[in-house]
Write a structure and sequence with these properties.
There is one protein chain. The chain is α/β, with parallel strands linked by helices. The chain is 23% helix and 19% strand. It has one domain (2-472): 4-Layer Sandwich (Metallo-beta-lactamase, Chain A). The protein contains 16 helices and 18 strands. Strands 3, 4, 5, 6, 7, 8, 9, 15, 16 and 17 form a 10-stranded mixed beta sheet that branches. Strands 2-10-11-12-13-14 form a 6-stranded mixed beta sheet, covered by helices on one side. A two-stranded antiparallel sheet has the order 1-18. A hairpin with a 2-residue loop joins strand 12 (320-326) and strand 13. Helix 5 packs parallel to helix 15 (374-387). It starts with a helix and ends in a 15-residue tail after the last strand.
């Protein structure tokens, strides 16, 4: 029942590409010369972090009317964004304590500009998998529970945005579920769990290609894919492989036109993993992958209007967090926590979190399966909390959406998040020309509420350098109704 509940969806609002000119005008102000954050007009921020000028939200009628739109939804590879220098100096601060303060201060300025700028076009949430995860890792051993495991629901975010006036589609965390099960840690756990029990605990949602299809999106029209980190990722079915001699099998690309956006350091560390990381990486997960469709980043990246990827090192050296500007404010999508409680432990109802943080003078509780860079992960979570807005119905909590979110279950009695997000939903899905050719174009009511607002070259080497960025393509979307969470 849990898996079925997580895939309840609506028919997406079908917006023809003729409306894209009006999207650009509605989501952004006039261009400013010399603005490094400008795609279709990131406006000058008003003074004060609490002062935000939100662009008007386009309506279904205005999008459908579509004047002067000439956007090609199958445009070829373009630059994959603009580097963001704001946090560079702060991250090079030598000592960890001053580094945390420097990162927080720099993040406040970046957050102000980003939140006052244009919004993404649409955001939808695609559930992929429900799986068991050690309680001690989920909350750094701070949670008081007799249950050694709890359930997490892993989800992919579908994001549409404008990049230099062109509509782009991003899938964030489109994990290959069978490949993820080959991760050494999860494979070893599965060896000791009877099949009947595993079938009750680990549930797969509808395949991601089918979910995209129901939203009117063809997998071949996804422009970018990215992950918060490479833990449990098998890139071969996602990007495809060359099938070179000595390799077991040739994989067809699930997203044949997509470019992977990945930090160079994350990619390089896969070559020779630290022992603390080995249990969490799929050993051959990138073997034979065509790196001509990999864009390597070396810093923070403004991918397009209302969409940015910030480095958040800690769990891995190249950990990154996606931030999206929506009609309810800025959301972050992160693997650094497993519940909203990780970022707001003093407001948490999870037994033990508040007490441990008081005793140890902590403001954050980490998802700590790889503790080698704990100080950096703590700083990264402070950065995330600084950038993200607060939930409107539970302002003590930040709009930080765990990529794998704790899910209440009988497996962990007495353990449930104080606030359960379940989904982030924003804007109206724009259906591409290819999808329109095979689908009806009837529109459904706009799903413009954010679910989290409810409390409750060759193989392996090569690729393009993204200065902070390089070459790539951009984002995709779908539509599913957020399930309202109970407190």
């Amino acid at each position: 029942m849990l898996a079925r509940a997580m895939i309840a969806t609506d028919v997406p609002t079908r917006v023809p590409p003729a409306g894209l000119a009006m999207i650009s005008n509605a989501l952004a102000g006039p261009p400013r010369m010399g603005d490094p954050y400008h795609f279709t007009g990131l406006r000058e921020a008003d003074a004060g972090l609490s002062s935000r000028t939100m662009p008007p939200e386009p309506t279904a009628a205005s999008l459908a009317s579509g004047v002067n739109a000439t956007v090609d939804l199958t445009v070829g590879a373009t630059g994959c964004g603009t580097g963001i220098p704001d946090l560079d100096r702060a991250w090079t601060t030598p000592a960890s304590g001053p580094r945390l303060r420097a990162v927080r201060t720099a993040a406040e300025g970046l957050r102000h500009r980003f939140a006052s700028g244009p919004r993404a076009v649409a955001v939808r949430t695609l559930p992929l998998l429900v799986f068991a995860y050690p309680t001690k890792y989920a909350f750094s051993g701070a949670a008081l529970s007799v249950a050694p495991y709890l359930l997490l629901t892993h989800r992919c975010l579908l994001v549409q945005f404008l990049q230099n006036g062109a509509l782009k589609t991003l899938l964030f965390n489109p994990t290959d579920v069978p490949g993820a099960r080959a991760t050494p840690f999860f494979a070893r756990v599965a060896e000791h769990v009877p099949d009947r029990v595993r079938a009750l605990v680990a549930r797969d949602a509808e395949p991601i290609a089918d979910q995209l299809g129901r939203h009117g999106i063809d997998p071949a029209e996804v422009d970018y894919v990215a992950f918060d980190r490479m833990h449990a990722q098998d890139l071969r079915p996602i990007l495809g492989t060359s099938g070179a001699a000595g390799q077991a099998a040739r994989f067809a690309a699930r997203f044949p036109e997509a470019t992977l956006v990945v930090p160079r350091v994350e990619w390089d560390e896969w070559d020779d993993l630290h022992p603390l990381q080995r249990a969490w990486f799929v050993r051959d997960g990138r073997a034979g992958v065509n790196t001509t469709r990999v864009a390597f980043t070396s810093g923070d990246l403004m991918l397009g209007d209302g969409v940015m990827l910030l480095r958040t090192p800690g769990q891995t050296a190249g950990n990154q967090t996606l931030f999206v500007n929506t009609n309810s404010g800025v959301w972050g999508i992160s693997g650094n926590g497993t519940a909203a409680d990780n970022w707001s432990p003093f407001e948490s109802k999870i037994p033990g979190l508040r007490s441990v943080c008081r005793k140890q003078d902590l403001d954050i509780v980490m998802n700590s399966n790889t503790p080698a860079r704990g100080a950096d992960q703590y700083t990264s979570m402070v950065l995330e909390k600084t950038i993200a807005d607060r939930l409107r119905r539970a302002p003590a909590f930040a709009q930080l959406f765990p990529s794998s979110e704790m899910t209440p279950s009988l497996l962990s009695p007495g353990m449930k998040p104080t606030v359960l997000h379940r989904a982030v939903t924003h804007g109206e899905v724009v259906v591409s020309s290819r999808a329109r050719a095979g689908h009806a174009t009837a529109a459904s009511p706009s799903a413009s509420a954010v679910g989290g607002g409810v409390a409750a070259g060759g193989a392996e080497k090569g690729g393009a350098e993204c200065g902070a960025v390089s070459t790539a393509r951009a984002d995709s979307n779908g539509a599913n109704r957020p399930i309202k969470a109970a407190e």
